[in-house]
């Protein structure tokens, strides 16, 4: 038990050391980039520093597998040079037995990254995006993504089908839309009504449209002749402020605790939640993947320093870790596009990586 705690402590210190080095590197890169982008604004150095702190958790979260790879390499290269691995093996410990404390720490870090770091990243990323846009433009327009504006789709009421909504832009809360076009479809049929309005405000139970013009499209030869211009009109809606504000959010800015409910709301509003489902399962599989990259790195670096070719071993460990990381990302893309099932996209790379790394370690030690 004492030796296990020693290995775990050494690995944790290695992770913290490598993570701290990367934090400083990311902070320096962000500082240079933000100063360049905000050079024509009145943003102070303190405000830039605040943006750096807000963006740091996201950066560390993205490169966590790389941190684990380099921490494993640093740990076992150092222990090989001090002959600690030789002593452990002389005491009757196999390579896999010596790795168990390290694997447990890696799994715990993965669990903490999923249940604690992920919500922190979601909160800080949202705040970073809001402040950055405010410092850059002086205002915040939540959904102005392109020249075509933003698109929403809501479920119908009664005999109405879904309604597609396009707006040029929105307020930060997503409750006020500007230059709005609404196209209502009959269930299983084509469009039945078109509405254009200057503004649309979401209230209790629906949209309040101002400066609206309505064209009936069902069974009408000349919609323009039957069009109505109204100063105000109320349109029922199933959307809420939260669902609109989060509809266009990236999966990584939504807490893993909120994702299941968010996916249900997204699908109820007519949107596809597949991308978010893949991300959720990917986050849940993260502890296993971190254990896999630790095993893969250890397979190349748990060797005596006198055997030579240390540089090649380190390079091999890093390259294998990168290969596993990019295969995982590639599977995520396939899952999001619908090419492969969600569970396969999220869990197959970590499971395959773990089995590959375990087989490689056993072969090198006992083969």
Shape estimate: elongated
Helix content: 55-70%
For the biggest β-sheet, the strand order reads 1-2-3-4-5-6
How is the main sheet built? 6 strands, antiparallel
Uncertain segments: 139-147
* Continuous helix count: 11
Proportion of residues in extended strands = 15-25%
The whole-number mean of residue pLDDT values reads 81
Termini gap: 28 Å
Describe the structure in your own words:
This protein folds into 2 domains: about 230 residues, no CATH class; about 100 residues. β1 and β2 form a beta hairpin. By secondary structure, it is of the alpha+beta class. It is elongated and about 90 Å long.
Secondary structure topology:
Elements: H1 2-37, H2 45-62, H3 64-81, H4 84-90, H5 95-137, E1 150-154, E2 163-170, E3 176-185, E4 191-203, E5 206-216, E6 228-236, H6 241-247, H7 259-268, H8 274-284, H9 286-301, H10 310-336, H11 342-366
Antiparallel strand pairs: 1-2, 2-3, 3-4, 4-5, 5-6
Helix pairs in contact: 1-2, 1-3, 1-5, 2-5, 3-9, 3-10, 5-9, 8-11, 9-10, 9-11, 10-11
Give a short synopsis of this structure:
The protein has 367 residues and is α+β, with helices and mostly antiparallel strands. The protein has helices at residues 2-37, 45-62, 64-81, 84-90, 95-137, 241-247, 259-268, 274-284, 286-301, 310-336, 342-366, and strands at 150-154, 163-170, 176-185, 191-203, 206-216, 228-236. Helix 3 packs parallel to helix 9 (286-301).
């Amino acid at each position: 038990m004492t030796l296990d705690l020693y290995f775990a402590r050494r690995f944790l210190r290695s992770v913290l050391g490598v993570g701290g080095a990367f934090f400083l590197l990311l902070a320096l890169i962000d500082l240079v980039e933000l100063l360049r982008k905000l050079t024509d604004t009145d943003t102070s150095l303190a405000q830039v520093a605040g943006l750096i702190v807000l963006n740091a958790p996201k950066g560390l979260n993205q490169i966590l597998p790389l941190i684990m790879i380099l921490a494993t390499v640093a740990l076992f290269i150092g222990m090989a040079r001090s002959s600690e691995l030789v002593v452990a093996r002389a005491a009757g410990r196999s390579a896999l037995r010596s790795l168990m404390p390290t694997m447990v720490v890696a799994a715990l870090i993965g669990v903490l990254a999923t249940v604690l770091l992920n919500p922190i990243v979601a909160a800080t990323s949202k705040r970073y995006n809001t402040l950055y846009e405010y410092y850059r433009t002086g205002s915040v327009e939540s959904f102005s993504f392109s020249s075509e504006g933003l698109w929403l789709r809501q479920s119908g009421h009664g005999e109405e089908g879904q309604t597609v909504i396009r707006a040029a832009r929105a307020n930060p809360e997503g409750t006020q839309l500007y230059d709005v076009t609404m196209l209502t479809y009959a269930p299983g049929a084509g469009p039945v009504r078109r509405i254009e309005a200057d503004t649309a405000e979401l209230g209790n139970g629906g949209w309040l449209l101002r400066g609206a013009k309505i064209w009936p499209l069902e069974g009408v030869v000349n919609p323009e002749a039957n069009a109505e211009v109204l100063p105000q009109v109320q349109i029922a809606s199933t959307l809420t402020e939260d669902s609109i504000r989060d509809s266009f959010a990236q999966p990584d800015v939504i807490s893993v605790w909120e994702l299941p409910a968010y996916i249900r709301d997204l699908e109820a509003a007519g949107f596809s939640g597949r991308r978010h489902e893949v991300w959720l399962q990917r986050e849940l599989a993260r502890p296993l993947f971190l254990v896999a990259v630790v095993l893969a790195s250890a397979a190349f670096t748990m060797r005596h320093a006198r055997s030579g070719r240390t540089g090649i071993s380190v390079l091999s460990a890093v390259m294998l870790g990168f290969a596993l990381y990019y295969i995982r990302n590639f599977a995520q893309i396939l899952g999001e596009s619908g090419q492969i099932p969600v569970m396969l996209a999220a869990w197959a790379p970590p499971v395959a990586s773990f089995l590959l790394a375990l087989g490689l370690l056993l072969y090198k030690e006992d083969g």
